[in-house]
Design brief:
The chain is an alpha/beta fold and 423 residues long. Helix content is 31%, strand content 22%. The chain has twelve helices and 20 strands. It has helices spanning 15-22, 75-87, 108-121, 133-141, 150-153, 157-175, 183-197, 204-213, 248-252, 284-293, 312-322, 391-404; strands at 2-7, 28-31, 40-44, 47-51, 64-67, 72-73, 97-100, 104-105, 201-202, 218-225, 261-267, 270-272, 306-308, 310-311, 326-330, 340-349, 352-354, 367-374, 408-412, 420-422. It has a ten-stranded mixed β-sheet with strand order 9-7-5-2-10-1-11-15-19-20, with helices on both faces. Strands 14, 16, 17 and 18 form a four-stranded mixed β-sheet that branches. A hairpin with a 2-residue loop joins strand 16 (340-349) and strand 17 (352-354). Helix 3 (108-121) crosses helix 4, helix 3 runs parallel beside helix 6 and helix 6 (157-175) packs across helix 7 (183-197). The radius of gyration is 22 Å and the shape is globular. It starts with a strand and ends with a strand. The chain binds guanosine-5'-diphosphate.
Length: 423
């Protein structure tokens, strides 16, 4: 069985906790896109962790974790993450972590260019986390970075990396008028970080094909969500990679694999980190209260997340582009303080009501149309079955399910591994 766990909205839906839960029944967990620019929060018997690059299966002893070729492989971030998990008692070896030799390397100057560009854009910025993701993917597609496998196969890998640096130094000096990134610095960086991750680099395609032939269960873990997809999201306020499940086998390293099940993760209300249109956004006290109750601060940056009512128009679009076969609805417990709950079921654009998710630039004209549902106003964090939920909470779930035309299979009522209702 091959499954994907993907974000349906802007990211931060709780994918990490769902992958950590599912990983018990899977043999392999694969990250297939994105990099260290977001965080998947996992709380389990070993503690609380914000994973940035490592797959969320890393805590399960018999799970093999894979970083596929679609990932933005930042050796420095990865090395630091491995070290901090090892300190917490998590064992990481080339047996339970495999990095695709075809993954491209994100270099420190990608982070520098990211920062220079956000500074240049000033108040028109996209809200980048400055982890170098956009410059990295730009370089990957113009073939100006280096594959991880070259650390194994290239006798003059430092020379090859310096050639890649030549190009980016032109950008740094000619466009941004800054000092070039020093070639000596890169040598020590490679020696320090690349050498540490080298033992994990392998032919992931071969490994995944063999795992599949041996009937192993493979779980693909996405980063961010549908609305941040480079092709189908709210461009240009997207990330620079494909966040959709159909890309998973390609970005993982075994394009011939088929996905049997796609679990789309949806938060019970909407949040968005960074810039871009967000139709059902709350402001003022209403926003502050929801942000506090939901602890909505970025796992990577600590930035306060923008919060609002569940936007079903965007969510339905997200479900469609992901081809989700079921939904995990997370953070339902957070809404327990509300007497009434707004749900955005349509947009008004130029006074015309629509429930079709529009072309990105039309979103800034869109105004939310709300339906108001009854709240349950009671703590549900200890509930473990659908039947035990208050009637209003059941109605909230059923309303969403009917609108999305996709079964809600899981409902989470707390961040812990066991705070989950399976229907
Ligand atoms: P991801 O990037 O999609 O994995 O999501 P994040 O980790 O960025 O954000 C999800 C946050 O919500 C994390 O802090 C989780 O611990 C927390 N969380 C996940 N599910 C629940 C839930 O059902 N209830 C509550 N209260 N918190 C949750």
């Amino acid at each position: 069985m091959n499954s994907a766990v993907v974000g349906i909205n802007w990211g931060d839906e709780g994918k990490g906790r769902m992958v950590d839960y599912f990983a018990e029944r899977y043999d392999v967990v694969v990250r297939f896109q994105g990099g260290g620019n977001a965080g998947h929060t996992v709380i389990n018997d070993k503690g609380k962790f914000a994973l940035h690059l490592l797959p969320s299966g890393i805590f399960r002893e018999n799970v093999v974790n894979v970083l596929g070729n679609g990932v933005a492989l930042d050796p420095e971030k990865l090395y630091n993450e491995i070290e901090s998990l090892e300190k917490a008692g998590v064992k990481i070896t080339p047996t339970n972590l495999k990095i695709s030799s075809r993954a491209s390397i994100l270099f420190p100057w990608h982070r520098l260019i990211d920062e220079l560009e956000e500074n240049r854009l000033a108040d028109k910025k996209y809200g980048s986390t400055k982890q170098g993701i956009a410059p990295f993917y730009a370089d990957k597609y113009r073939k100006k970075t280096v594959l991880a496998g070259e650390l194994l196969y290239d006798d003059d890998v430092i020379g090859t990396i310096k050639k890649a640096l030549e190009w980016d130094n032109l950008i740094i000096t000619d466009i941004y008028k800054c000092e070039p990134y020093s070639a000596e610095d890169i040598e020590s960086w490679v020696n320090k970080y690349c050498s540490k991750i080298k033992p994990y680099i392998t032919d992931v395609k071969e490994y995944l094909e063999e795992a599949h032939l041996n009937n192993k269960n493979i779980l693909f873990e996405a980063q961010l969500g549908s609305l941040r997809d480079i092709d189908y999201g709210i461009y240009p306020y997207t990330t620079s990679s494909t966040t959709l499940s159909t890309y998973a086998p390609i970005g993982a390293g075994a394009p011939e694999l088929k996905i049997d099940k796609t679990v789309g993760v949806v938060k019970a209300y909407s949040t968005c980190v960074g810039e871009g249109p967000f139709v059902s956004e709350y402001f003022g006290d209403e926003a502050d209260e929801l942000r506090e109750k939901g602890a909505e601060y970025g796992a990577k940056t600590g930035r306060p997340r923008r919060v609002g009512a569940l936007d079903l128009v965007a969510t339905k679009y997200g479900v469609e582009v992901q081809g989700a076969t079921s939904i995990a609805l997370t953070k339902l417990d957070v809404l327990s303080y509300m007497k009434e709950i707004n749900v955005c079921t349509a947009y008004l654009i130029d006074d015309v009501k629509t429930n079709k998710f529009p072309f990105p630039s039309q979103l800034k004209k869109a105004k939310p149309v709300y339906e108001v549902l009854k709240g349950w106003a009671t703590d549900i964090s200890n509930v473990r079955s659908f039947d035990e939920l208050p009637i209003e909470a059941k109605e909230y779930i059923l309303f969403i399910e009917k609108y999305l035309k996709c079964p809600i299979e899981y409902v989470s009522v707390g961040p812990e591994r066991e705070s989950l209702i399976k229907r």
